[in-house]
């Protein structure tokens, strides 16, 4: 029994070798755990330091940028200098005044002495209308005037005679009154005839069309033997309502449709620089001469006209031109 018990106890006992192996296991495990923990701590602090450095660097850069913006705002933000363009818009060259020469009464063109592109001087004869009827009227009224003047002369003589007779009590007062009335009627007839003659002469003068200004013929709208009238009655085949279109090409503007969002950048008398698209190397000075009092609702634009200071032959009406609005 004791032997069996001893044998059983001996089986339950752990050998010294096994005790040594088990005793070394926990130490290794602890060492591994410590190493892992140290590694995790190192990684954590390394990442934190890197994030801190990055944040510090970003903050420094932001601070430096802010400082540069505040201290040197003119360098970081674009500022337009006086004389530089703050806005560039394209428009069309136009004459400041385009004149269409129309007749003052219906008539037929007898002669036209200019063509498109011709230069004319103020007062130069450009068109003649048929004037035979008006010459005849002038001659007729001149005859009436001559007769009225003769009657006036006779009436003045009779009145003078009646005044002398009245002083000598030879004739009655009624005869003097009649002579006075006849003289006054003759004077009225003279005045009427002179007015009619002036009217007929005016119509005759209107048959000769003179240039109203120094300028250039832009369009020739009629030819000899064509009927012209001062009023259009509709349709496309009726009489012409104008002989010619002309303008002074030394007085030009650039017409611009300005976007309403750019309106605050433009004001009256603002200096501008003009360059025609056909001749980009040509530069002309100008200024804002006109700003429309109302905008175009459908386009969302405001019409602006820029006066060209010294235009030359390179600026042709209806050509496209680029306009730089300059800062002051």
Give your account of this protein's structure.
With 328 residues, this protein is α+β, with helices and mostly antiparallel strands. The chain contains 5 helices and 14 strands. It has helices at 2-12, 16-71, 73-76, 132-167, 173-206; strands at 85-95, 98-101, 107-112, 119-120, 125-129, 208-210, 215-220, 227-228, 244-247, 252-259, 271-276, 284-291, 301-308, 320-326. Strands 1-10-13-12-11-14 form a 6-stranded antiparallel β-barrel. A 4-stranded antiparallel sheet has the order 2-9-7-4, with no helix packed on it. Helix 4 packs antiparallel against helix 5 (173-206). Residues 20-24 and 53-77 have low confidence and may be disordered.
> Which H/E pattern describes the elements?
HHHEEEEEHHEEEEEEEEE
Q: Please name the fourth-level CATH homologous superfamily of the largest domain.
A: RNA polymerase II/Efflux pump adaptor protein, barrel-sandwich hybrid domain
Structural class: alpha+beta
Strand content: 15-25%
Main beta sheet: strand number and arrangement? 6 strands, antiparallel, barrel
Side by side, the strands of the main sheet go 1-10-13-12-11-14
């Amino acid at each position: 029994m004791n032997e069996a018990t001893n044998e059983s106890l001996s089986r339950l006992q752990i050998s010294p070798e096994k005790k040594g192996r088990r005793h070394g296991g926990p130490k290794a495990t602890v060492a591994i755990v410590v190493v892992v923990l140290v590694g995790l701590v190192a990684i954590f602090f390394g990442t934190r330091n890197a994030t801190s450095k990055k944040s510090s660097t970003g903050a420094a850069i932001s601070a430096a940028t802010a400082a540069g913006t505040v201290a040197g705002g003119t360098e970081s933000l674009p500022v337009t200098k006086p004389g530089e363009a703050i806005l560039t818009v394209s428009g069309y060259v136009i004459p400041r005044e385009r004149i269409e020469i129309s007749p003052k009464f219906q008539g037929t063109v007898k002669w036209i002495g200019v063509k498109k592109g011709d230069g004319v001087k103020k007062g130069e004869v450009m068109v003649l209308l048929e004037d035979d009827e008006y010459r005849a009227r002038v001659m007729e009224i001149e005859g009436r005037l001559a007769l009225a003047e003769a009657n006036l002369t006779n009436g003045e003589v009779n009145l003078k005679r009646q005044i002398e007779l009245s002083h000598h009590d030879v004739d009655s007062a009624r005869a003097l009154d009649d002579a006075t009335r006849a003289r006054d009627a003759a004077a009225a007839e003279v005045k009427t005839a002179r007015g009619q003659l002036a009217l007929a002469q005016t119509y005759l003068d209107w048959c000769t069309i003179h240039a109203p200004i120094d300028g250039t013929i832009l369009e020739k709208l009629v030819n000899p033997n064509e009927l012209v009238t001062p009023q259009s009655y509709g349709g496309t085949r009726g009489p012409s309502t104008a002989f010619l279109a002309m303008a002074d090409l030394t007085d030009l503007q650039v017409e611009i449709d300005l976007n309403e969002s750019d309106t605050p950048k433009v004001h009256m008398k603002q200096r501008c620089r003009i360059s025609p698209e056909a001749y980009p190397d040509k530069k002309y000075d100008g200024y804002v001469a006109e700003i429309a009092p109302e905008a175009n609702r459908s386009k969302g634009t405001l019409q602006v006209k820029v006066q060209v200071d010294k235009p030359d032959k390179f600026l042709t009406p209806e050509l496209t031109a680029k306009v730089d609005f300059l800062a002051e």
